[in-house]
Amino acid sequence: MTGSTPWQQARLAALDLEGSGAQDRDNEAILEIAVVPLAEGQPDLSDAYSTLVNPQRPVPRRPWISPGLTMAALSAAPAIASVELELARRLSGAIIVGHNVGVDWRLLRRRCPSIRPAGLLDTLRLTRPGDEGNSLSTLLDRHELTEQVTALAPGSRPHRALWDAVGAILLLRKLIILKYPDGVSIQHLMSVAGTDVTGSGDFPASAAVQGQLFS
Q: Any idea where the domains of the chain sit in the sequence?
């Protein structure tokens, strides 16, 4: 990429994963993961990837774990090591989009260290400071996007990986339209809503990352 690149032309991929919970600390397991690439700023469902993940240990039922993520279903799924290569193919070199994306990235980075994204773009950082209720579901409802997400991800539901990944894309588009009606470059978006991949702070993290994104 050279100069000022329209955000729709950047290589972007939405990520969402469902985990066993932060209370598991270093033992937190990924239970489901979805990656949805963007094509001209739209979710490309024809090339989306979504899978349950076998945690390879018992996971107790918890209120935030979707009813569909049962041990019976998860035990038949591949382990995270078996899908790391596919995830790396889809995410390495891309800017990962997500709502509060740093949380998902920290867990994925721990479980799949071979993945090397170019950066993280957080839709939460594009919301207005002080807004009450900035969860993904609340924002999708507020912007009347919930039905559209459900139509694009049939068979999925809120708080499942595919639904939330599609939701993050539609929310990103909506927030950009509201904040930047005349268009915006990916460079500017990363300056205001980017997070570095090391988890140490705001984007950019280093000259090497800047070069990967913008050279």
A: 7-214
